[in-house]
Amino acid sequence: MTADLLITGASGFVGGQVAAAAHRQPGVRVRRLSRRTPTGPASVHGDLGDPASLRGVCAGTDVLVHCATRISGDAETLEAVNDVGTKALVEEAVRCGVGRIVYVSTAAVYGRGPFRGVRPGEVPIAPASATSRTRAAAERHVLDAGGLVLRPHLIHGEGDRWVVPGLVWLLGELSATLTGCQALQSMIDVTTLGRAVVAAALSPAHGGGVHHVNHPEPVAVADLLGAVSKRLEVPGADASVDVATALERAAGTPLALHHLGMLTVDHWFEDDAFWKDLDCPPGEGFQAAFTRAAPWYRSYLADRTAP
User: In whole angstroms, what is the distance from residue 80 CA to residue 208 CA?
Assistant: First the structure.
């Protein structure tokens, strides 16, 4: 199909893969919203933190794919970008007659689990952080305009500076891996996510509403930590502790407790309907995708620990 896509956050972890996937689609013209001065026809200036700068950015756009998110900072800044900025962007898209709006959100808007085999609409929104609260507000603006909201859970792959590096840090804090943890985690590699977002943006089968976007097979925490320990050669991870002992070791470290609180309960989100109607298979499971990304993770982690 022929379409003009405007992508926000195209220089980021997820948005970069969305932009790359969009460029591979024949007949699709891709433009990027940038806070910097435009360097050519493929970029347009606009800052979510400055709603007035968004005037006119959606002119000539068929599909708005909104991947930009502020994930850190004080509550005021998060609200200004994720909530107020998204509201202004969506209003501008509606004013310009954009046919479809797609927002890449997060399953974190549900708050803490356990969530086992949860489908869209089965549990309430209950965000536990300022970031998640403002992303939930952004979702509402998109849904009120008839847009499509996509909620992945854990995203891994090249460029991931949070999920797998966080697990490596946790294993280092514990000086061991976990045993006896039966929890399941929904995951998706970022390349597949980029393809899926573009497919949904261009698919006539997907209108507005909410979809979970993860690989259909959840990952057992034991398999997740085992792969991280083995492929990234995490020091000390050949030892093991049960969950109770891990919680005792993490008692003085709030961040470690935060990671364990998420990791040791189910965060498994189902949505077979999302993949069924797309010309975009969910691809290989976690083990194969992580094996391919492992060299990038090793390089990234080595640079972080270098003197």
Answer: 25
**pTM for the full predicted model:** 0.95
State mean pLDDT over 69-95: 96
Strand pairing partners for 184? 220
Q: How many other β-carbons are positioned within 10 Å of the β-carbon of residue 273?
A: 14
Q: Which token pair is 60?
A: 């000539």
Q: CA torsion angle for 135, 138, 142, 148 (degrees, to 10)?
A: -10
CA proximity to 21, closest of 289, 206, 200, 160 = 200
Q: Over the Cα atoms of the chain, what is R_g?
A: 20
Dist. CA 273–CA 282, nearest whole Å: 12
Asked if residue 298 is part of any domain, the answer here is no
**Token pair of 171 as six digits:** 């294993």
Report in angstroms the alpha-carbon separations of 74 from 71, 79, 111, 244: 10, 9, 19, 33
Please give the Cα distance from 254 to 173 (Å, whole number). Answer: 12
Percentage of the chain modeled with pLDDT above 90: 81
| E strand or H helix at 221 | helix 221-231
Give the tens place of pLDDT for each residue, 208-265.
999 999 999 999 999 999 999 999 988 877 889 999 999 999 998 999 999 999 999 9
Give the domain range for residue 12. Answer: 3-157+187-215+267-283
Q: Is residue 39 part of a domain?
A: yes
Residue 57's CATH number? 3.40.50.720
DSSP characters over 194-263: HHHHHHHHH-TT--SEEEE-S-SS-EEHHHHHHHHHHHTT-TTTTSEEEHHHHHHHTTT-HHHHHHHHHH
> Is there a domain that residue 140 lies in?
yes
Look at the chain and count its residues.
Answer: 307
